[in-house]
Amino acid sequence: MPQKPEFSQQPYHRMIVLCGPSGTGKTTIAHHLLENIPELKFSVSATTRAPRGAEVDTRDYYFFAPDQFSQAISDELFIEYQEVYSGLLYGTLHSEVERMWTAGQIPLMDIDVKGAMNIKRIFGKAVLTIFVHPVNLENLERRLRARQTDSEESIQRRLSRAQEEMNMSREFDAIVYNDHLDKAMEKTLQITYSFLLKSEKLSSI
Ligand code: 5GP
User: What's the Rg (C-alpha) of the chain?
Assistant: First the structure.
């Protein structure tokens, strides 16, 4: 278990972006980071997709109607947005990130690969991008099937998208291979601690 460093509360503008194909354990890893680093807060995105299961508006997503999302694009309310699945838009709101920074918090984002690359282009060294890599596609397929939450069509769509995302993994600051979930969680925590400590030193120069 890594030692927990103390981070100062100065509102230095940093963020952590976690990416990876669905089924790689990304959500579990995100929870591990949130539990261990109190300064981190989950950044809630806006989306035009309908709420799923027990999802709650403003906690899981800001659920926008399509015309509301278009208006937000025109009003330049998004730092970045993408059509992640055909016809479904997802975006990171300036207001969400600004609110956290003002409160001395560090946003943790779960966004797609293209969104992550855009955030990196905009914020450079202030952002840490981590790609959670499945062992291989066969393993990922087994995990997706074991979840029993996706239709065959959805599994195939996610697998072909996973291959595209894995092709872009080299663009990330760090890649974590999830061959053992416990190890992947600890590795991600270590990488995040190191980044926060290093960026804190840079901010005080
Ligand atoms: P889901 O519909 O399963 O909640 O999310 C689908 C995908 O959208 C996930 O891969 C997630 O990372 C991505 N996503 C969620 N929010 C955002 C966002 O604000 N921007 C971008 N670019 N992708 C997002």
Answer: 17
